[in-house]
């Protein structure tokens, strides 16, 4: 294969805004944009496309790899030798941080919190946690605590030992990490443009908010009429919208975009598919995972992408998207957690 541009977004608009920011190459970009004919047919609605950010190329893939191009870029620019972050025991973010750190020769400390209680042995040993251990992350366990103060204390201890720590917040959704999805959003828009597909909406799981914030900022920067709909995986609508807006404003300030006219109204979140709570799949989550697997051979997960797909399916059935329209499902990854949720698929 010849010299491809490294990513669609390395040209034009993106080059101008993103080029000044330290960045390392991690993502196998552009990730594929595939048409899901059998799923679209089964749902008898719009043409559903999938943007394969589950295949970003880093230790199982997932959306955090995009953020980590900038987060690790900044850590290296600051001459950090250790990265510290937090997440639930089955955090995909924690696993991808550990992998990116390993790849760039940094130590990793993971603060894993008991945010999801009452799960069995598989949850406590398998899935992402198995991979964290394999990636040689140093693991600290805590109860269901607020992680930011604990991360700050760990960083303080590291500094006292002469190390140079870099703290990455939960989900990597600060100003720097969010730039990864500005790049991801511009990449998606370039692909849709090249295919001549006029998609109405991109639907995806929203948690710490940076993915949605970056996508939305990208549509603004490109002047594209693509709606971004976040399906909440835990928080109620207003809290989730607040997270997205905070990340969006931080990233916009970072790259010098000041015109955020009416952006508040553009942050669309649906919280009806959370089910029993963060890290707890509903029956419809499991059903959505099965449909994607059975019709397309596509692996979703019980914490994020399964809930997002449950949301997309319900919205299609409710007539929100119709035949003849095009909708993009952003697959943010997460299938590495499936083994930790084996019990939910027992029947
Ligand atoms: C972290 C994560 C999300 C949510 O992305 P945010 O940027 O935190 O909102 C969605 N899907 C998967 C699989 C994730 O790991």
TrEMBL record:
It holds the Pfam family PALP. The keyword Cell division does not apply. The keyword Phosphoprotein does not apply. InterPro entries: ACCD_DCysDesulf, TrpB-like_PALP, TrpB-like_PALP_sf. Keywords: Pyridoxal phosphate. Residues 28-333 form the Tryptophan synthase beta chain-like PALP domain. Belongs to the ACC deaminase/D-cysteine desulfhydrase family. This is D-cysteine desulfhydrase family pyridoxal phosphate-dependent enzyme. It comes from Bradyrhizobium elkanii.
């Amino acid at each position: 294969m010849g010299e491809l541009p490294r990513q669609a977004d390395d040209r034009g608009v993106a080059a101008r805004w993103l080029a000044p920011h330290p960045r390392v190459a991690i993502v196998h970009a552009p990730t594929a944009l595939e048409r899901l004919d059998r799923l679209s047919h089964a749902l008898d609605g719009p043409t559903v496309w999938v943007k394969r950010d589950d295949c970003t190329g880093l230790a199982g893939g997932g959306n955090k790899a995009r953020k980590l191009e900038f987060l690790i870029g900044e850590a290296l620019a600051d001459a950090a030798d250790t990265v510290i972050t937090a997440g639930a025991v089955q955090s995909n973010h924690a696993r991808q941080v550990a992998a990116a750190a390993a790849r760039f020769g940094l130590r990793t400390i993971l603060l894993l919190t008991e945010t999801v209680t009452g799960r069995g042995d598989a949850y406590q040993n398998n899935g992402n946690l198995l991979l964290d251990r394999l990636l040689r992350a140093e693991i600290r366990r805590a109860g269901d605590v607020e992680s930011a103060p604990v991360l700050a204390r760990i960083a303080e201890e590291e500094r006292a030992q002469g190390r140079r720590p870099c703290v990455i917040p939960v989900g990597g959704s600060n100003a720097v990490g969010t730039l990864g999805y500005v790049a991801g959003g511009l990449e998606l828009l370039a692909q849709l443009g090249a295919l001549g597909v006029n998609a109405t909406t991109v639907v995806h799981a929203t948690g710490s908010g940076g993915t949605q914030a970056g996508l939305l900022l990208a549509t603004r920067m490109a002047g594209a009429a693509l709606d971004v709909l976040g399906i909440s995986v835990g928080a109620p609508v207003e809290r989730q919208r607040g997270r997205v807006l905070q990340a969006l404003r931080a990233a916009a300030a970072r790259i010098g975009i000041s015109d955020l006219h009416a952006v508040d109204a553009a942050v669309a979140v649906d919280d009806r598919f959370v089910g029993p709570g963060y890290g707890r799949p509903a029956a419809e989550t499991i059903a959505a995972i099965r449909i994607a697997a059975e019709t397309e051979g596509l692996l979703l997960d019980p914490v994020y992408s399964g809930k997002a797909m449950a949301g997309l399916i319900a919205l299609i059935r409710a007539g929100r998207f119709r035949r003849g329209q095009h909708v993009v499902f952003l697959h943010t990854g997460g299938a590495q957690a499936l083994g930790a949720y084996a019990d939910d698929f027992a029947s």
